[in-house]
Amino acid sequence: MSDVQQRVERYLAIWNETDPAARRAAIDELWTENPVYVDPLGVAEGRDAIDAFVGAAQQQFPGLVFRPAGTVDAHHNVARFTWELGPEGGEAIVVGFDVAVFTEDGRFDRVHGFLDKVPA
């Protein structure tokens, strides 16, 4: 498994982490000091805002889990990957893909999210 693939899996694990302290520790480890996350639903600038954004997603979709859907495509300091959100072992109700920009030390600096499938 590539280093980028592992980073993406750790990134998705943040979206599943329900313990606020553990989630924040993972954000602090994996993201730069001034990161930005943006998707069609909003913009989160900074670690505090990203933490709040993830917490809001968990409240909106309680009991569902994010999981990778395929392999990561990466070059230089950029990666794109597809993910799914659904019940453990069940069909995804949301599908999207993210484009991540990393710093030289491998931390997430920018993530641009896109939604391909959303609930009606």
Automatic annotation (TrEMBL):
This is Nuclear transport factor 2 family protein. Pfam families: SnoaL_2. Residues 8-108 form the SnoaL-like domain. It comes from Actinomadura chokoriensis.
